[in-house]
Amino acid sequence: GTNQAQGKTYTIATDTTWAPFEFERDGELRGIDIDLINAIAENQGFSVDIKVLGFDGALAAVQAGQADAVMAGMSITDERKQIFDFSNPYFDSGIQMAIAENNETIKSYEDLAGQKVSAKNGTEGYDFAQKLAEQHGFTVTGFQDAADAYTDVTTGNSVAVFDDYPILAYGIATGNVKLKTVTPQTQASSYGMGVKKGANDELLTQFNEGLKNLIADGTYQAILDDYLGENA
Ligand code: GLN
């Protein structure tokens, strides 16, 4: 169709530090989400103004009409589809539990009984932890930033944190996160860019078109390799 989004500037709301999807690299905001939306914008001839609002802040800003889209490893869920429209999926993910490196007592969700765990507000990981909490009798503390949720575990206030596994795996592999995983990944879901329901169809169309082009020309894989590949 016609390039309705050509030349427009869209406000894109993202999370605070959540490597490898959004974080500072060489003094610049980078990451898979950031590089991908910038590459799609370039491919489709629109501009982006990226605002770092935190995850639940990003969702709220889009619902309030203060931003056009969330690009923040946002899981495409049926619940969110009530109030958001999503782009085509661009990354397959899921949730995992992590515990302190030196913790030898937590081996399964059953071992969380009577304990405290942490998660980030407004996330699938938080909802997942909350469901398990009812089943196994533990409490969940919510944090605005992943870093604070992780620190709650390293300082021993919580015994476990629930977050998306690519983020935990990256943090552990780079040595930035002093945690380990003992249970499998679960609750598979895919990430998409989210816009307020009915409000930004042309941006979604451009995103999907750009994503398709970047997959075809290898740019998409190059972005992933930059953060997740052998030499990342
Ligand atoms: N994928 C998770 C969700 O959509 C977490 C996203 C995030 O923390 N940025 O709830």
TrEMBL record:
Organism domain of life: Bacteria
GO cellular component assignments: ATP-binding cassette (ABC) transporter complex
GO MF, one example: ligand-gated monoatomic ion channel activity
Keyword Zinc: no
Signal sequence interval, chain numbering: none
Cellular location(s): Cell membrane
Key words, A-Z: Amino-acid transport, Cell membrane, Membrane, Signal, Transmembrane, Transmembrane helix, Transport
One annotated GO biological process: amino acid transport
UniProt similarity note: Belongs to the binding-protein-dependent transport system permease family.
Protein name in the entry: ABC transporter permease subunit
Provenance organism: Gulosibacter macacae
Region of the whole protein represented: 44 to 275 of 760
